[in-house]
Structures are given as structure tokens and as C-alpha cells.
Amino acid sequence: MAVHRSKDHVKHQxxxxxxxxxxxxxxxxxxxxxxxxxxxRDQGEIPVGAVIVCGQTIVAKTYNQVxxxxxxxxxxxxxxxTAAANYLGAKYLTECTLFVTLEPCPMCAGAISWSQxxxxxxxxxxxxxxxxxxxxxxxRLLHPKTEVVSGLHSAPCKQLIEDFFRELRN
Length: 170
Ligand SMILES: [Zn+2]
Prior knowledge:
Distance between the termini: 101 Å
Strand order of the largest sheet: 2-1-3-4-5
Bound molecules: zinc ion
Shape: globular
Number of strands: 5
Order of helices and strands: HEEHHEHEEH
Structural class: alpha/beta
Helix content: 25-40%
Radius of gyration: 23 Å
């Protein structure tokens, strides 16, 4: 017997399923760093917060803890660099971006330099203690490959610090 095949063509509808994911931008991560700064303020610390992102993964969220830990090196950035290295199990942060609410001081710039950080994004500038006041064109404090972006979300981050010191004086 002949096998009669159905001539009906089965139409395959190929549905391309697009992976739904959200790519967050710098603004989002700086908002998170700001939230960390608020935690610092609530604990009587100078309000500085930091977040380190690797790809789309947050590998560190920290805030200044100098008073809590009674440790002058416990700046948000130093704690973030250490936390990120612990998370990644690697000492170099060549794929990472650090978001911090205040321009890093020279000590933190040193740590950031040693970490070979890919990108540094800071909000408010620090005219007295910020690392850019201590470097020259010949002598950079950061690793030569580290990209630097400043000024993002700077007004509220600066305001937070000004309010903190105003309250401290009163
Ligand atoms: Zn610092």
C-alpha cells in the first residue's frame, strides 16, 4: 500500500524568545552608592558610599566605617576593593567599575591603582582631600588604564556631606 502523506504543511512558527534583561547604567549604580552613603550617615560616619560592579554583577557595596571600626583606612573605597577581591577570588579588578559618592583621597587612589581597576566613577569632587589635587600630568595616582568619570549625581552627594558637617557643628 502506498503511504499517503499529508500534503498539509505544518507551519512552524518559530518564536524567537528574547532574553529579557535590564542593563543598568552608571546612574543606577551611583544611586546605590548614595544609599550606602546614607547608611554611613545614619551611623554617624562621614557619608561616603561605594559600589563595585563587574559586568552586571554587584561585587561590593560598602560605606565609610572609620568610626565604627576605629580604623583610619576604613574608607568606603578601600572596603569596596577588599570586598570585591574577596567576592571574585582575584586581587585585580580589571573588569570592574567602582562607583563612589565622593572623589577618592590619595590613599584610596593608591588602593584603586594597585587593583588595576577598569573604571572609576565618582560623584562629588573633594577640593581639599581629593586625589586629583595631589597628582600631576607626569605623576598619575591611578593606574594608567583606569578610566575616570566624575560629576555624576554630584549635587545630592555633596549636599549629604555638607549637611553632615553642618549638623556636627551645631
Ligand atoms: Zn579614601
